[in-house]
Amino acid sequence: MNIGEVSERSGLPAKTIRYYEDIALVRPLRSANGYRSFRESDIHKLAFLGRARALGFSIEDCRILLDLYEDKSRESAQVKAVAEGHLTEIDNKIAQLKSMRETLSQLIETCHGDHRPDCPILKDLSGNT
Amino acid sequence: MNIGEVSERSGLPAKTIRYYEDIALVRPLRSANGYRSFRESDIHKLAFLGRARALGFSIEDCRILLDLYEDKSRESAQVKAVAEGHLTEIDNKIAQLKSMRETLSQLIETCHGDHRPDCPILKDLSGNT
DNA sequence: CTTGAGCTTCTAGTCACTGGAACCTCCACA
DNA sequence: TGTGGAGGTTCCAGTGACTAGAAGCTCAAG
């Protein structure tokens, strides 16, 4: 199967699929004309990658998860550890964003936002309390 | 004032300060020996940038905010608009992360995480329901 | 006069793609 | 048989906001 159809079926842009081959996440065969030739298992892998990326896993995490997926003697604890590490990162990011949000929304509230130049947002950024 | 002291006083790494000069966010003078020579106003700007970046504003937003800061005839509505745009982005990111978090934590809960290979996380990623 | 800290510039790497150029291949239709 | 266009190929460069590291210059203290 050619890359266009694989792109449709996996939901990933062709560029991304080529990139994933570049970094050896998938290894499609080649036809006589030089075109990539994807097997069902490649499409399956790509869809796996799409879902893992949608959950925010890094490419390196994806690589590990794919390896675990293909290792039938894996221990589920290994998978869980990767997922938990990622969950922690997500929690950290959420906490950071919430803290930014908090500060920012307070500043926005106190800014009258009209034609006058006086602005508590700039005041705060400039270090004035 | 040399970059080292400015780094300490502004809280920004020297590398970052040089980068900010590269992209013309600050324009320190130069001493006869070629060293950057920072005025108080440069330090002030850098501290401003540090705070704006800590609130998650992009470099381009920071550039706009700095310009507004220096434009004494600005309208506070302009500042507020930038801040509100950024707040919306933050909210979007938080929503996305929360949705990831939701899915991921549910998967983690159902994974027993022991020596057995059976794993609902991988099952889900592989498209099995 | 040496040593070491601190400064300079420059290049390249990060992450995960994405855009674009130049070129090749295939298939349908005239 | 020619042609046009869709779809494939590779390679290079850019994104954002730094960061690491190398090679070399300057300065102050001992």
UniProtKB/TrEMBL annotation, chains A, B:
Signal peptide: none annotated. Residues 1-68 form the HTH merR-type domain. Pfam families: MerR, MerR-DNA-bind. GO terms for biological process: positive regulation of DNA-templated transcription. Keywords: Cytoplasm, DNA-binding, Transcription, Transcription regulation. GO terms for molecular function: copper ion binding; DNA binding; DNA-binding transcription factor activity. It is found in: Cytoplasm. InterPro entries: CueR, DNA-bd_dom_put_sf, MerR-type_HTH_dom, MerR_fam, Tscrpt_reg_MerR_DNA-bd. Coiled coil: none annotated. It comes from the Bacteria. SMART domains: HTH_MERR. One of its GO terms (cellular component) is cytoplasm. This is Cu(I)-responsive transcriptional regulator. It comes from Yoonia litorea.
